TrEMBL record, chain A:
Coiled coil: none annotated. The keyword Oxidoreductase applies. Residues 1-178 form the FAD-binding PCMH-type domain. This is Xanthine dehydrogenase subunit XdhB.
Amino acid sequence: MYDMTGYHEAHSLTDVFKLMQADPTARLVAGGTDVLVKIRAAAPHYADTTLIGISRITALKGCTLEADGTFNIGALMTFDQIEHDSLIQTHLGLLSQAVSLVGGPQTRRMGTVGGNICNAGPAADSAPSLFTYNAQIEIQSESNVRQVPIAQFYVGPGRTILKPGEIVTKIKIAPEDYRGFVGHYTKFARRKALDIANLSCAALIKVSAEQRIEALRICFGAAGPVPLRMPQAEAYARHQPLNRAVLNTIGEYCLKDTQTISDWRNSKVFRDHLVTILPGRDISMALRGDEDEAIG
Amino acid sequence: MKQLVNFTLNGETVSCEVDVRKSLLEMLREDFGMTGVKEGCGVGECGACSVIIDGQTVDSCIYLAVWIDGKQATTIEGVTHEDGTLDPIQASFIDAGAVQCGFCIPGMILSSKQLLAHNPSPTRGEIRRELSGNMCRCTGYQKIVDAVQLAAKRLDVEPHARAAIPFTIEK
Ligand SMILES: Cc1cc2nc3c(=O)[nH]c(=O)nc-3n(C[C@H](O)[C@H](O)[C@H](O)COP(=O)(O)OP(=O)(O)OC[C@H]3O[C@@H](n4cnc5c(N)ncnc54)[C@H](O)[C@@H]3O)c2cc1C
Ligand code: FES
Ligand code: FES
């Protein structure tokens, strides 16, 4: 049995706020693929608490496209739903591709995008793409609704700005942040399934009619305590032509903004090598569907 | 703390006053005797505990028992036909030599069943992806992929003609 002290099912947001108020130490659980694993491992703040189940709250499910083109992705959307949603596939192809690489099929059917960002693991597979789409996180409490850019949502490994009594309801992506862009995500891991990324990289690019880089956004996972955008490489890339030398220089610029470390998975030297080559590969894949085909 | 759950287990309506701390895996084995649901890792990595819930294979070791309320669950016990004869997927695993110790097989068969329900003639690559959440420490997987391909061929024909489709190794 799980080492937990109780369970309450929330059927609506009103329920959640009531239950959180009644027991401020209780923990929300969506798909449970992080929470239940951490309880098994007797992790502090997870084991020996009461859980509030949110998986039946309809208001947090599904995905809608507003008339102005803004995407609303419900916090409870599973990786499997995001991978197969036709609107997301068409307009947010990078996100759909990225989450198709999570865990195994069973994990993708239970794990939610809300849980993935709230768990705030540095290697979370949905995060780099959401950073490149400049996603806004909508946070609700009993008395307030606020929106926060995803880059400000993360505080450190496993830590977010969420305050007690708050819940993430949806992830919003504005039309100017996806229209005209194509992207690709590389999860660099030892196995294709059921492995955590040693390093991951999402690139989202818009190319002008003159075949120059109009806008480029790059975000690494596991290259620092939180997912990191690459402002210096992105600024350099603007208006550059697309050729091998430019892609290499973009990779070199990324070293200025990453904060890789050595750990039991990999050395810093190896990670830094990956930092220099993954953005170029992602750009080639996004534009040509082939990382080996020389660009330019 | 206990909670009443009502759900459909292998086609039958059932209910149980379950301790909220139990996983679905624990409830199915302890309260319903469904010992075909195996516990390997207990943390969602091996797929031995796979159960089909509302048409989707999930790991029952990291699924709270109370979450099953109002849903439909299928375990390996519900794949075998009522008269005790094997489902074509089970028979194909045996005929292709895909079973060694057998511990992973209930999960493998449930994942295969779900795959074939959505994709009646999967490629070897598609089979590998759909079974990538199920680990096997014995077979080396080749014969498991063979078995799913054989099952796909057999499910494509009328029941009486199935036995006539033999296992051949595809190069
Ligand atoms: C075998 C296995 C493999 C995995 N592989 C990967 C992988 O390859 N890549 C990857 O990124 N992850 C992986 N994970 C981790 C996990 O599946 C993901 O992080 C998943 O997105 C978590 O979602 P969940 O709904 O299960 O979250 P839960 O476990 O339910 O919750 C996670 C955290 O978020 C909080 N929370 C959840 N929803 C909300 C909300 N709406 N508002 C506020 N707080 C909330 C919870 O309180 C908890 O702290 C794996 C897990 C397992 C078990
Ligand atoms: S026992 Fe559930 S996945 Fe291993
Ligand atoms: S047959 Fe032994 S684990 Fe698969």
